[in-house]
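Input (structure):
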C-alpha cells in the first residue's frame, strides 16, 4: 500500500445526479491536508477516466464494463416518469409502466437504464443528445421522460413533475476504482463510503501516536503465614 505525499490529491469522478457532499465533508475531517477534487462526467467518461488514471475513483451508474475495475454497489435509485404539470399521471402518487403504453417516451443518448424487455411507451422521432435536452422537450410537450429520481430532481422545473414507476427497473449506483493494489487514500475513501468510522478504518495513520505501554502487573507474592506458637505446658 503506497502512502500519500505532502502534495497528494484524491480525484473523484461522479455522474450527474449523484451527490457526494457527505463523503466530501467526511474526507475533509479525516484528511484535512489532502485535497479531494471532484470531476463531473458521464458513466462512460468516468470509466475511461479511471482506466487512464485521470481520477482515482468514480461514483457512477451501472451497468459498466468491469474489466480491470473494482466495484462496490452503493444503492439503487427509484425510476420515475417526468411529465408536464397538467399530465394525467400527476393525479396519482405512483404509476406503472403500462400507464405509458400510448405515450411518446424520449430516450436520450446518455440514458443508462437497462430494461429486461421492451422499453415503455412509443419511441420519439429523434433521440435527444442529453437528459438535459430531453427535459426541455418534455416541458415543450414533445413527450415524457423516464429517468432515475436523482436526475429528475437535478433538472427540476416548475412546469414539470415526476412520479415513481412501481414496476420499472431501478438504477444501480456504484463506486469503481482500478483493479490494482489500493493506495492508502483509496482505502480511506472506501472506508468512508462503507460507513467505517475513523477509529475502525483499515488505513494506517502515519501521525498516530501509539498508546503508552502499560507496565506489567506486579506479581503478587505469596503471603507468608506466621507459624502458630506452640504453647508451653507445665506438667
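Output (sequence):
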Amino acid at each position: 500500500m503506497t502512502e500519500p505525499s505532502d502534495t497528494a490529491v484524491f480525484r473523484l469522478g461522479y455522474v450527474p445526479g449523484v451527490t457526494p457532499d457527505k463523503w466530501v465533508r467526511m474526507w475533509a475531517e479525516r484528511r484535512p491536508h489532502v485535497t479531494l477534487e471532484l470531476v463531473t462526467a458521464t458513466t462512460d467518461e468516468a470509466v475511461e477516466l479511471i482506466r487512464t488514471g485521470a481520477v482515482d475513483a468514480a461514483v457512477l451508474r451501472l451497468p459498466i464494463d468491469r474489466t480491470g475495475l473494482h466495484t462496490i454497489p452503493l444503492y439503487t435509485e427509484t425510476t420515475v416518469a417526468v411529465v408536464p404539470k397538467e399530465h394525467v399521471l400527476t393525479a396519482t402518487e405512483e404509476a406503472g409502466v403500462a400507464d405509458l403504453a400510448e405515450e411518446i417516451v424520449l430516450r436520450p443518448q446518455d440514458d443508462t437504464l437497462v430494461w429486461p424487455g421492451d422499453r415503455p411507451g412509443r419511441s420519439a422521432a429523434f433521440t435527444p443528445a442529453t437528459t438535459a435536452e430531453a427535459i426541455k422537450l418534455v416541458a415543450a410537450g414533445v413527450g415524457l421522460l423516464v429517468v432515475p429520481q436523482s436526475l429528475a430532481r437535478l433538472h427540476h422545473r416548475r412546469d414539470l413533475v415526476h412520479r415513481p414507476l412501481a414496476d420499472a427497473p431501478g438504477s444501480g449506483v456504484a463506486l469503481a476504482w482500478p483493479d490494482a493494489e489500493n493506495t492508502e487514500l483509496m482505502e480511506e475513501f472506501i472506508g468512508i463510503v462503507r460507513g467505517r468510522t475513523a477509529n475502525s478504518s483499515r488505513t494506517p495513520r502515519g501521525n498516530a501516536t501509539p498508546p503508552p505501554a502499560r507496565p506489567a502487573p506486579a506479581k503478587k507474592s505469596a503471603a507468608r503465614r506466621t507459624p502458630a506458637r506452640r504453647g508451653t505446658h507445665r506438667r
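Notes: Strands lie at 9-14, 35-40, 57-61, 69-77, 79-84, 104-106, 122-123, 144-148, 160-164, 171-178. The first strand starts at residue 9 and ends at 14.
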